[in-house]
Amino acid sequence: MPYTFGERPNLLYIHSDQHNPFVTGCYGDPVVQTPNLDRLAAQGVVFDSAYCPSPICVPSRMSTLTGRHPHENDCWTNEHALDSGIPTMAHAMGAAGYWPVLVGRMHARGPDQLHGYAERLVGDHSPNYLGGAPGVDHGMLTGTQGPARVSLEKSGIGQNAYEVHDEYVTAATVHRLNELGVARRSGVLDEPFSLSVGLMLPHQPFVARREDYERYAGKVPPPDHPEPWGDHLHPYHRWWRERCGIVEVTEEEVMRARTAYWALVDRVDHMVGQMLDALERNGLAENTLIVYSSDHGEQVGEHGLWWKQTFYEESARVPLIMSWPGHLPEGLRYDGVVSALDVNATILDALGAPALAASHGRTLLPILRGESDAWHDTAFTEYCTDEGCIQRMVRRGDWKLNFYHGQPPQLFNLHEDPKELNDCAGDPACREVLDELSAVILDGWDPDAVWARMQEKIGDQEVLTAWARRVKPPETHRWPLRPEMDYIE
Question: What range defines the domain where residue 105 resides?
Answer without folding.
Answer: 10-488
